[in-house]
Amino acid sequence: MQALNDKLFLLLNATTHSYPLTVALAKFAASNIVVLVPFFLIVAWIWGDPLRRAGLIATAASAAFALGANQVVGLLWFEPRPFMMGIGRTLVAHAPENSFPSDHTTFMFTVGLGLIVTRAAPAWGKVVVGLGLLVAWARIYLGLHFPVDMIASILIAACFSGAAAFLVSPLARWVMPLIEPLYETALNVLHLPARLFPRKL
Questions:
Q1: What CATH architecture applies to the domain 2-189?
Q2: Which of 86, 127, 139, 160 has its CA at 20 to 30 Å from residue 169's CA atom?
């Protein structure tokens, strides 16, 4: 299994002949795409269908729980990063810490799959999943993770995003009636319209 993991890593990892444009894309994808996702969730709350806001909360909660699960898994299983083992090429600096699983990939896939299964924004969920694949590739390409880290991340994301589907109904029934008035009050205090944008996301 370790030999297969190493072989896949070396197959995806950058080489001395990698194109500078590919390296630049990987560096952007590895660190910056994940930062955009929380902003999307905020926009989806404001611009999207109010009836789907429970799904957004369920998705965000599942992502938080998934990242927490990553920490637990990391305590139970330590996997050194490729550069700690002298394998492949590393093109960005990173602390020598546990590689297993990948927080970036877990977050991207949990949000993407969560948006799909909760029906909060299924089309955009597919986009986020696609971007998650790009992030996973980039972090392997740059020498920060092994493929097995990404497989574990996707499995964790699938479990917690699946759980998000079961959270939608109780959130809609018990939590949204509390949150919506607070949200509307905040808009009134700030003298903002109830719908900041004329169209739905």
A1: Up-down Bundle (1.20)
A2: 127
